[in-house]
Here is the input.
Amino acid sequence: MSGKSIRFSIYSIVIFIAVVLGIIYLFKYNILMGVVGIVLLFLPAKLQRIALDEASGKVDKIIAKYIVPGIAIILTLMAIMALALWIQ
Here is the structure.
């Protein structure tokens, strides 16, 4: 089990949360800036890919391959719902 892989997975989730919240605020104030903010979603995806490459054990491979993207999908859906509520 690689601690480096788990650390990159945690960084990926934290940065993803920050970027999604930033995108929500950007969309709230200016739609064009929100679209530009979507480009920042490549950073957490890159960290998740690094975590998957660094994974050596079964547990950290499962975390990097299934749990982190699952959390990202759930957070994305929550962000879309929050954005829809704020725009109204």
